[in-house]
Amino acid sequence: MYNELKELTLAEQVETITKKLISIPSVNGTKGEVNVADFIQQTLFTFPYFKQHPMNVWAQPIPGDPLGRKNIFAFIRGKYASPKTVIFHAHIDTVGIEDYGSLKKDALNPDALEAFFSNYSFDQQVQHDARSGDWLFGRGAVDMQSGIAVHLANVLYISEHLDELPGNILLMLNPDEESQHAGVQSAISELKRLSVQENLEFVAAINDDFITPLYEGDVTRYIYTGAAGKLLPCFYIYGREVHVGDTLTGIDPNVIASELTRRIHNNLDLAERIKGELCMPPTCLFQRDTKENYNVQTAKSSYLYFNYFIYERTAKEVMDMLTAIAIEACSEVEHASYERYQTFLKQTGFPPKPLLWNIEVTTLADFIDELERKGIDTASCTKAVVRENKGTELRMLCFKVVEALQQLDPDKKPRVILFFAPPYLPHNHLKEDNIRDRALLQVIETVAAEMEEETKETFVVKKFFPYLADGSFLSLHESDEEILSLIRNIPEWDSIGRTPFKDIRELNIASINMGVYGKDGHQWTERVYKPYTFHVLPKLIRKTAIRLLTEQLVESK
Prior knowledge:
The chain is of the alpha/beta class. Helix content is about 45%, strand content about 15%. The chain is built from 18 helices and 19 strands. The strands form four sheets. The chain has an eight-stranded mixed beta sheet, sandwiched between helices. Strands 9, 10, 11, 12, 13 and 14 form a six-stranded mixed beta sheet that branches. Strand 18 (about 520) and strand 19 form a beta hairpin. The chain starts with a helix and ends with a helix.
């Protein structure tokens, strides 16, 4: 690979590597993640620096991963002895290619896609971009094989110009970003090892996950100094099932689920409001009842969960808000059900049945406490569910655990149980009242201003990368008490949890995102903008890294 790159310009190197990476199927949850990791590792071994220092490239297997996925690391030690290290990181997996439809065979062929979209009159903007020659199409073009390519090209450049490097560079490439973030979470232990055994001090981590226009006509190049977090709040809803000929006496969990979705999905009042930041509202990702086959009985229970971005809120604050909403929703359903039943009795003249309409709302932690007070051994029950359902999709496993707990209740009351399921992503950002963070922020803003003058690009520095990214797992803002509140509401956290909160807190690595620029990530029209991504971005990242190392060295003296 080095022989293909050594005579090319930096931009040509990035484009060449991007096309090579796109051509390798690397869909999340497939062996392709292993194949692309192998390609990257072999590519690094062809670089002269790593031929001289082969031990500076290594793979870290993800423990227990059925696919054998692994993190790839490469370390460049600067000319002057220093513990100060900047991490370059990116994810190596992509989403699937099913959305390409009849073009699926060309989903990994940028040239074929450019030819197709050049004649694609159904979307004038896509056609214009394809004809301009400034955009490279293909699955992973922007999310985020071009990001890996930028880092690899920079690693090659830096390894051949060690006299420009006042500290060290650690390249870290992770699988499974598009799903459970198993790669970066496993990598925390390796970063911890390097910090202890090699005495490395991580100044910051620079991710280059993709940025995109935030509105029509937006040409801003955003730099993010932190990452949004994510919760997956779940509702297990247990109703009162009845025959279809007697539905007015039942409590339908689907009605409760629908009322919760109506109140929560895209509710802008539930989105945080932080000046200058893009803060998204919660979104329903799953809603269905537990009936497996057709019959004339109403559903007994329903499952419901939401994607919930967090920026400055804690999990406890979100749980408290959603509990209040659930209480209101259930009260509405109780009242409506009672009123309809009373109307039905008047219309038919039937005598009333002794029915209760109360729907209890509780959190998982509180429900477990309630069962324990009744002398019920909840731990044996939940561990048995996990043991008997190995291989079950993680969200469904959590619901099965909660469902088993509900079955332990001798009263079988209609109930809504709120809990969290994986993945959980912490939120973080540089804080202006923190001395270290303020110094890092000043460097980033200074470099952005210099690059703006040099390139005529428009840069804006913001706090939160508005999408989900591995950078969430590099530092932690929540207190121990807040984390405890979170994990007490995740079913069987001791069995399914993998987030190393203690190590993340101790490492406390600032997460910066200077992303490749493109459009339509996760869509079949996905494309990366070459003039910025291949020409400007590598220099921006390299300049920032060197300046961060230089400034930190000055401070350390």
